[in-house]
Design a protein that fits this description.
mainly alpha, single chain, 2 helices, 93 residues
């Protein structure tokens, strides 16, 4: 015959066991890790947005300069063409 021993369940309800403590610590560590990952991801997104804005400003600045150079070149070439046409027409007369 086998002896069956029962323990008082009230003792275990008031005192958390090692497994419950481990679960609680793992849950806290997981929460902290998730928070750190979200914070890092947020920082990366903010840094990326700032870099994109800087690149956009640089590109816009360079495009503005290029457009100004193209406009001035077009005006200069137009004036040169007008002078040459005027010079040729005055020679023919």
């Amino acid at each position: 015959m086998t002896d069956i021993y029962t323990e008082d369940s009230d003792e275990f309800d008031t005192r958390p066991g090692a497994l419950e403590q481990l679960r609680a610590e793992v849950a806290r560590a997981t929460h902290q890790l998730e928070h750190r990952i979200q914070s890092s991801a947020s920082d990366v997104v903010d840094e990326t947005r700032m870099l994109v804005r800087r690149a956009q400003h640089r590109i816009n600045s360079q495009l503005g300069s290029a457009a100004l150079i193209a406009l001035c070149s077009g005006v200069a070439l137009g004036l040169l063409a007008a002078v040459l046409v005027g010079h040729r027409s005055s020679r023919r007369r």
